[in-house]
Predict the structure.
Amino acid sequence: MPKVTFPRMGESYRAFRMLMNDLGNEVIIPPRPNKKTLDFGVRYSPEFACLPLKILTGTYVETCMSGAELIITSGGSGPCRAGLYGQLHKKILNSIGFPVDIIVFEAPKSHPIDFLRKVKRVNSSRLSYLAIWECVKRGWEKLKYLDDLEKTTHALRPRELKKGSTTKVYREVLEWIDGAYAMKEIHEAGKEALNTLKLVPHDTRRAVLRVGIVGEIYVLLEPASNLEIEETLGNLGVEVHRSMFLTGWTRDNTVKETSGILSVKEAAMPYIPLCIGGHGRESVGHTILYARDGFDGVIQMAPFTCIPEIVARTILTRVSREHNIPVLTFFLDEQTGKAGMSTRLEAFVDLIRRKKNAPVSDNRIIVG
Ligand code: SF4
């Protein structure tokens, strides 16, 4: 049974583990990124590599030390380093003595044959395509419940009566989803988990601030890489709306792009008419949509040296002024500390609270 691993992005590993097990693989669960992960990542990655690459290097080193033989990850297209991650990680890991292989899944709508070839490679149990499809459907349902639970915590945390109660219950109910296997069990566990989470005592009438979070996908989805910014904001009385979830991103890259009255790309068009790689265009588009939806502010999460987010950051200054929405940017690297981030968040929340209570036309932006 091949020992496989994959990048850790929030709680999604619970669904991927089930899928990989179903396909007949032994899974080495990627550990939650911590200081040791980052130390490995910094030691073995190029100095000016972006933070996600370093964290993933560290994660892979840890999983290879636990015996991982095959890494499964997704690719990237456009002018951004993400498309080269697979080759680079393989070179780094092989050069430090781990004979690991990497399978990079590209978007199936643009590389259908390559996608099927790779599915065959991870299908160690030699299941039929129909059986694989059934496994994917169960994994997908799990993923949807995991995303729904996280969204619910965003709404509850700023309204909870006892600080920390949402996070506590969230941690408990995640295990229920983890333990479910058959489709019926997944639905039962998912619904029960959502209902239980919603029972956390909270004040529905409490006035809270609403802040949108935009930025690069990895630092948005993995709380350890963004120093749990969503939890910190929730504790400051802010309802967070994250612009990207794994289910939404997967749907956009496999089936068709989700679009409301105005799509993210259309919103960004006057500022960025081209794909600039990563999620730079999405950061701008989502900020405009948040301004239109009456959000109180936007926070951009950008890995240090990430070109798409640097470009977006430059444009967001104008977007902030023209759409009258405060924007705060965090450039994240291995030096970023939680205490410093919390101080800046408190100042930002204070600013948007005052702006909400006494609206001014001259908008201010805090530079990251
Ligand atoms: S989007 Fe930015 S952080 Fe992500 S891979 Fe590309 S350059 Fe690195």
Observations:
- The CA atoms of residues 122 and 340 lie 43 Å apart.
- The pocket of iron/sulfur cluster is lined by residues 50, 52, 80-82, 216, 277-278, 303, 306-309 (CB under 6 Å).
- The chain has three domains: 3-127, 132-204, 208-368.
